[in-house]
UniProtKB/TrEMBL annotation:
Listed SUPFAM superfamilies: FAH (SSF56529)
Organism, scientific name: Sphingomonas suaedae
InterPro entries associated with the record: FAH (IPR051121), Fumarylacetoacetase-like_C (IPR011234), Fumarylacetoacetase_C_sf (IPR036663)
Domain Fumarylacetoacetase-like C-terminal positions: 167-350
Protein name: Fumarylacetoacetate hydrolase family protein
Coiled-coil positions: none
Transmembrane segments: none
Length: 379
């Protein structure tokens, strides 16, 4: 049965260039949607990371395998849509919006107990809500706000990365562990306070060039990180906890980093219990410029296969779900839909990381598969 891309691709998809991965039954294939058609890029590059590194991201570098109907573009019969990255490192930035900074301080002060969050939120909003929104991170004004908050006993490690000179950048998930549109997303089975994080994700080459953007869900466990920031790895890196897709929209004359800076990212959560929550993350409210965050992620590293970078989110769900004051947390079966007009739609259904499909295609399996198909020299 063919997979329809209608509703997944943005309305102006026929004007853009979209890089991704599909499985046609014999292993992952890097593909490009351009000029109204689907192109297999393996004649020149057998990996998405390789295609980006070589600049093999035009129809001339591939083989046309399907024309796409303008009203109902579809993948070939039997194809599976995968996360649109492979060998890139998966990085993420946190606390890049004022609201997310406040919510992280709440987690810290509540020690991961959701029942205490509402009261703490009110006090923090009253004391730092306007101030934290008004300053540029790393500026003299930010340093002055820090001094005032320290004197007031309100300082936090999260406020340091919110308004200080250095962004929080961490490794979200191992290479090849991301899941794509339609796949289950996982939260730890022992977490009682968690949420999705709808974000824009940049694709960056080994040279530090930002080449495109996609959508992502940086699933977060608020109870774990709230107990200790040293539990960030356990809160962020779990099986199926990193969703990406549906495709990387490559930058061109019609879609640039300015479109990322001005993008709205919508979130809808629909539970099997009838619960429904909606929200929007507006990139115009980000505290740090996306290219500055990418430069800080690059820093003194060298990523030979490039990296992708979650930019953080404005959205932190606080709507009560079951009891007054209990806030929001996921339930098994929640349908999480993230959408942005120029990037498309990424939708996944929540399960536990324990029950999510086992992650089996690591680097060794990936390379052996390319050797089997005679494509190892095109990685």
């Amino acid at each position: 049965m063919a997979v329809s891309l209608a509703g997944l691709l943005p309305d102006d998809w026929h004007m853009g260039n979209f890089l991704g991965r599909i499985d046609l039954g014999d292993g992952p294939v890097p593909v490009l949607i351009a000029d109204g058609a689907l192109h297999d890029l393996t004649p020149s590059s057998a990996s998405v990371s390789g295609a980006i590194e070589r600049g093999h991201t035009t129809p001339q570098h591939g083989r046309r395998i399907a024309d796409l109907d303008a009203r109902d573009p579809q993948l070939p019969d039997g194809a599976t849509l995968l996360a649109p990255i492979d060998l890139q490192c998966i990085k993420a930035a946190g606390v890049t919006f004022a609201v997310s900074a406040i919510e992280r301080v709440i987690e810290e002060r509540a020690r991961g107990d959701a029942s205490q969050a509402a009261a703490i939120r009110g006090r923090l909003e009253e004391r730092v809500g306007s101030g934290i929104r008004a300053v540029v991170p790393g500026s003299p004004e930010a340093a002055e706000l820090k001094r005032a908050l320290i004197e007031d006993g309100m300082w936090s490690q999260y406020l340091e990365v919110a308004i200080g000179p250095d962004a929080e950048v961490f490794t979200k998930s191992p290479v090849l562990s991301g899941v794509g549109h339609g796949a289950p997303i996982g939260v730890r089975s022992d977490s009682s306070w968690n949420n999705p994080e709808p974000e824009i994700v940049l694709a960056v080459s080994s040279r530090g060039e930002t080449v495109g953007a996609m959508l992502g869900n940086d699933v977060n466990l608020r109870d774990f990180e709230g107990r200790s920031a040293l539990l960030l790895g356990k809160a962020k890196d779990n099986t199926a906890s990193c969703a990406l897709g549906p495709f990387i929209r490559l930058f061109d004359d019609d879609f640039t980093i300015d479109d990322v800076r001005s993008a709205d990212v919508g979130l809808t959560i629909e539970g099997t219990d009838g619960f429904r929550l909606t929200g929007t993350s507006r990139m115009s409210e980000i505290s740090r410029d996306p290219l500055d965050i990418a430069a800080q992620a690059m820093s003194e590293h060298h990523y030979p296969d490039g990296f992708v970078l979650f930019l953080g989110t404005l959205f932190a769900p606080t709507q009560d779900r079951d009891v007054v004051g209990g806030g929001f947390t996921h339930k098994i079966g929640d349908r999480v839909t993230i959408a942005s007009p120029r990037l498309g739609t990424l939708a996944n259904t929540v399960t536990t990381s324990k029950n999510a499909p086992i992650w089996e295609i690591g680097i060794s399996v990936f390379v052996r598969d390319l050797v089997r198909r005679g494509l190892a020299d095109r990685i």
